[in-house]
Amino acid sequence: VLFSWCQWLENTSWATAIREGLWQFPLLETIHLLSMILLVAATAALDLRLAGFALRRQPVSQLAGRLLPTALAAFGINLVTGFFLFASEATSLYVNRFFFIKLVLIVVAVLFHFVVYRKAARWDDVAAMPAGAKLTGCFSLILWIGVVAAARWIAYV
Ligand code: HEM
Q1: In angstroms, rounded to a whole number, what is the distance separating the alpha carbons of residues 129 and 126?
Q2: Separation of CA 105 and ligand 1 centre (Å)
Q3: Which ligand 1 atom sits nearest the alpha carbon of residue 85?
Q4: pTM score, whole prediction
Q5: What is the pLDDT of residues 17-37, one digit of tens each?
Q6: What is the largest CA-CA distance in the chain?
Q7: Atom 4 (ligand 1): residue with closest C-alpha?
Q8: Which residues of the chain have a pLDDT value below 50?
Q9: In this structure, are residues 149 and 114 in contact, taking their beta carbons and an 8 Å threshold?
Q10: For ligand 1, what atom is nearest to the CA of residue 78?
Q11: Ligand 1 atom nearest 109 alpha carbon
């Protein structure tokens, strides 16, 4: 069922235009990558703060309040452009294991984010970040790096 949906998607006129056009795919991919940079930069800054590597004098909740709207907007653009890129080559991406890994990692990273940052304020005033916070920051960082790495790999299988 999912595969025939991919076939249908790939054969829509707009998906065909993205696939066959000279500038459509590169343009979408450029926007996809720019929003990816914004998303990863914003989340990484927060992760590095949690890990205790950077911005140590900034309260965690204040930093989160500033960065998360940017991250959310960037993620929205990322999702939309990602969907159009996907549509243009849906059937081959359907069987691409790195695309699958990428999607799974995105879901895990987003879920992890909600679990963690809901309670981030408790680390606002602590002098040294506890081990749990450090682990959390590092793990989130690794997840996002994994997303980028898996995405880059898509083109080679
Ligand atoms: C559900 C949301 C997303 C979808 C559907 C999606 C889909 C895609 C597709 C179809 C490509 C082109 C792959 C190719 O043919 O080479 C791509 C490229 C890429 N995506 Fe995404 N993407 C999404 C979210 C993200 C996120 C969250 C990140 C990183 C944080 C990301 C990072 C990248 C990178 C680095 C590339 C470049 C791959 C290359 O140049 O070979 N994407 N994405």
Answers
A1: 6
A2: 12
A3: 10
A4: 0.92
A5: 999 999 999 999 999 999 999
A6: 58
A7: 82
A8: none
A9: no
A10: 24
A11: 27
